[in-house]
From TrEMBL, chain A:
Domain of life assignment: Bacteria
Protein name: Uncharacterized protein
Keywords annotated in UniProt: Membrane, Transmembrane, Transmembrane helix
Species for this entry: Micromonospora haikouensis
Transmembrane segments: 30-48, 80-99, 119-148, 160-179, 191-211
Automatic annotation (TrEMBL), chain B:
Keywords: Signal, Transport
Record domain Solute-binding protein family 3/N-terminal: where: 56-287
GO cellular component: extracellular region; outer membrane-bounded periplasmic space
Any GO BP annotation: amino acid transport
SMART domains cross-referenced by the UniProt entry: PBPb (SM00062)
Protein name per UniProt: Glutamate transport system substrate-binding protein
Family assignment from sequence similarity: Belongs to the bacterial solute-binding protein 3 family.
């Protein structure tokens, strides 16, 4: 895989071949992370899914194709991936523009990554975040976008009065769009939701620009460490998210006895259906004993809030909300409530 | 120059604040998304109930109440039965093979719940304060009034409560019912039998002259003998809330039943077909003089479920 040609970030403070070399190294490390992390995660997930059992892992490896694995990973990890990229580009741009003012300062890692990345890739990352982030967190994209592209209110109009009017109109429209949700959130005692919807647009107005010199170094080290730590922390649930869909299979064990098996279907052939049971262990069920099978949601998919933004649930991403428009009805099957 | 420096300083302080606040909000959002949900889920509640882990659910029903709860040719049918099937399915017991129907008479409903021989009672069970001290109720799923049913030969003679007080007429009702108490309050001498069906048989045999009970129960017997009886609308003045009986020791199960009844109510309110409406039209609907709608459920708990993200419209 070849790294794309860098388009921005003239590094005036480190001229010559040293800068080019450093740039190439940073580019390599960036792409290594982007490509290697999904691959490693996909394999790690199989091990976790198998409950740490070697033979079960091998069974999964034998039956889950690499394309399925990668597609499954992207489905569940796209949100995390977008979050990581947006955080790097937004922080990188803020740190980069701040360091520019201080000659001789070593450029922070994120600033170098942000400069090396072509604009189309940054835009794609924001687009990925826009479609995969929960609607509740989407307002945070506004300050992140303003920071990544260093957009100031001055870009809106030359005249200060006109700028104020435009900003007031934009904020007014924003509040009008969200007013019912904000009211509901307030009544339900959700101050964080109110803050997440109201504060970010205001922050977006002030976030572009250089930081004071004294802040740059501590901010760079703390945020870089924090973002990496956050990604590792957020990656843990992604590793433990199942690769295979959850089902409840009704098995007829005797003429008048049926049993519901909750688990993931690994493979089905003429002889048996191989089920990875939710509470552990693999079970081979003769195919002719399988009476019914339903797809079930996992506990992790339960909503945490009871709020909507204009018909869209705040915990849906725009992609999911759109999907619900296309296939609106979803009723949980009684078998999914199988107990014990 | 000084002004420019001041503006630049203000701007850099504003940027610092904006960056710090954005990071703080992002961190708070991240932490919040990993915390335990504030609102319990249906599955959480289900784990708290005494039925968790049971392969089948035992539901106490009437077997002798036409249109409401009836055993005919080995199959249970009626409005109460349909409501019971809906609740059982929502609790994870879909299909009659997962339901153990337990026949209970009117007076056995409370002892059956107290003794643990049934998990729920769905048998035209009026929610009263007295009973609420002994069992829990989820509902109401129906609001009814008390009426009297008389044989056609007496339909011109018995028209008022005053007529029922006449010692010439023998008024019959089922034991342990709210009707019995209501008739007593109106000083009506009453013959108490085990089931309303016994009263109807008694009237047909000439032993009694009138039967008083809940309008739905009477509608059921009217549907069975449409040519023999007339339902007389009497101003008893009380309406009854019919609910699902749950053991008083299991508040989680009560909450779940109330949640599912409310789910049906919300579906009906938004103009959709609801399980309640389907049950009503298949059973009671054609036989009631006044069409009914599902009443709002009382004390509905706040729970989340998997289909919450779907807009109920």
């Amino acid at each position: 895989m070849t790294a794309p040609v860098a388009t921005g970030g003239d590094d005036v403070h480190a001229p010559g071949s040293g800068a080019a070399e450093r740039r190439a190294r940073a580019s390599q490390s960036f792409w290594a992370v982007v490509v290697a992390v999904p691959a490693v995660f996909s394999v790690l997930r199989l091990g976790v899914e198998a409950g740490g059992e070697l033979q079960t892992t091998l069974l999964l490896v034998a039956n889950v194709g690499p394309v399925n694995l990668l597609a499954g990973f992207l489905t569940t990890a796209a949100r995390l991936l977008a979050t990581g990229l947006v955080a790097v580009f937004a922080l990188g741009a803020v740190l980069g523009v701040s360091v520019d003012r201080l000659p001789g300062h070593r450029r922070p890692l994120f600033a170098r990554w942000a400069e090396l990345t072509p604009t189309w890739f940054v835009l794609t990352s924001f687009l990925l975040a826009l479609t995969t982030w929960q609607i509740l967190y989407l307002p945070l994209l506004l300050p992140a976008f303003a920071a990544a592209f260093q957009l100031r209110p001055e870009r809106l109009h030359e005249l200060a009065a006109a700028r104020v009017l435009i900003v007031a109109a934009l904020l007014g429209g924003w509040l009008f769009l969200l007013a019912p949700t904000l009211l509901d959130a307030w009544q339900q005692g959700e101050p964080l939701v109110v803050a997440l919807f109201v504060v970010p647009p205001v922050l977006a107005l002030a976030i572009a620009g250089p930081l004071p010199g004294a802040v740059i170094r501590p901010l760079a080290s703390i945020t870089q460490a924090a973002v990496l730590a956050m990604l590792v922390w957020a990656a843990l649930p992604v590793i433990s998210t199942p690769v295979l869909p959850l089902t409840v299979t009704t098995v007829q064990t005797a003429p008048d006895t049926t049993e519901d098996v909750r688990g993931h279907v690994v493979v089905v052939d003429d002889v048996s259906m191989v089920l990875l049971q939710e509470h552990g262990g693999v079970r081979y069920v003769p195919t002719d004993q399988v009476k019914a099978q339903v797809l079930c949601p996992s506990e992790g998919e339960l909503p945490r809030h009871r709020l909507r933004v204009r018909d869209f649930h705040v915990e849906d991403s725009l992609l999911e909300a759109l999907g619900r428009r296309v296939r609106p009805v979803h009723r949980i099957d009684a078998a999914c409530r199988v107990t014990g | 120059m000084n002004q420019f420096l001041t503006r630049s300083r203000v701007r850099s302080v504003a940027t610092t604040l904006a960056v710090a606040l954005t990071l703080l909000l992002a961190a708070a959002a991240g932490c919040d998304s990993r915390q335990e949900p504030r609102i319990p889920s249906v599955n959480d509640k289900l784990r708290e109930t005494h039925i968790y882990g049971q392969p089948t659910i035992r539901i106490g029903v009437s077997t002798v109440g036409p249109l409401m709860g009836e055993l005919r040719d080995g199959t249970y049918a009626g409005f109460d039965i349909e409501i019971a099937r809906y609740i059982a399915a929502q609790l994870g017991y879909a299909g009659d093979h997962r339901i153990e129907w337990v026949p209970v008479s009117t007076e056995d409903r409370i002892p059956a719940l107290q003794g643990g021989s049934v998990d729920l009672v769905v048998s035209t069970f009026s929610m009263t304060e007295e009973r609420a001290k002994l069992v829990s109720f989820a509902g109401p799923y129906l609001v009814t009034t008390q009426e009297a049913m008389v044989p056609n030969r007496l339909r011109d003679s018995i028209r008022t409560i005053e007529d029922l007080r006449d010692p010439r007429y023998k008024v019959c009702t089922s034991g342990g019912s709210t009707t019995e108490a209501e008739l007593g309050r109106h000083q009506i001498r009453v013959f108490v039998v085990k089931e309303v069906g016994d009263c109807v048989e008694g009237i047909l045999a000439g032993r009694y002259d009138a039967v008083s009970s809940d309008e739905t129960i009477l509608a059921g017997f009217l549907s069975r003998h449409p040519k023999d009886f007339t339902v007389v609308d009497m101003p008893f003045g009380t309406s009854e809330q019919i609910g699902v009986g749950v053991p008083i020791s299991d508040p989680a199960l009560r909450d779940l039943v109330a949640f599912f009844l409310d789910k049906s109510y919300q579906q009906g309110r938004s103009g959709q077909s609801s399980p309640w409406l389907t049950a009503y039209h298949r059973t009671l609907g054609p036989w009631l003089r006044q069409p009914k709608t599902q009443p709002p459920t009382l004390d509905v708990p706040e729970l989340v479920d998997f289909d919450d993200k779907v807009r109920p419209s």
